[in-house]
């Protein structure tokens, strides 16, 4: 079976800096939870952004859901099927209330207001977050924002989840809740995390980004 996501020989450097990626490649199969580690600045977030076209490689190929992605139109399709949970929830949440934030994606996909409301309720019930539905987003705690960010992505019913440092700003209770939620989801995932315990509990396979390439970790 063809991989859901395949990155082949990616090279990339930010202007004025040494290259970050020097031939990075990975494959994500259906049902896998690939955990990626690496030091700060190794290019882990850069790699995730390339999957959805927020950054374009200097060289190499991004293939998603069986299609090589080159144009913005290609990546718009990818973004509907690959949900990106950003490292900073404030980059993801911008509506006045939690319900409006979660409804935004489905409405943008053409769902009716009633359909979007039903999706909001379903996602919040599934995540046991209904108590947050009418809360003002900017007044949420860091951990609550992190869980709501995940809810906004799940409302789009993605095939793949891309998680960038998902334990940032989480206390022990919310981290345990996040692990419980993610372990129960069917989606394949690419998980970038500095937290070795989190990677170990969630990942089904591990790789490390070193010197611009991905190497297998036992």
Walk me through this protein's architecture.
With 218 residues, this protein is of the alpha/beta class. The chain has one domain (5-217): 3-Layer(aba) Sandwich (Rossmann fold). The protein has helices at residues 44-51, 72-81, 98-108, 113-126, 142-154, 172-183, 196-202; strands at residues 5-12, 21-28, 33-37, 59-64, 67-69, 82-85, 160-164, 188-192, 205-210, 213-217. The chain has a 6-stranded mixed sheet with strand order 6-7-8-3-9-10, sandwiched between helices. Strands 2-1-4-5 form a 4-stranded antiparallel sheet. Helix 3 packs across helix 4. The radius of gyration is 17 Å and the shape is globular. The model has no long low-confidence stretch (mean pLDDT 94).
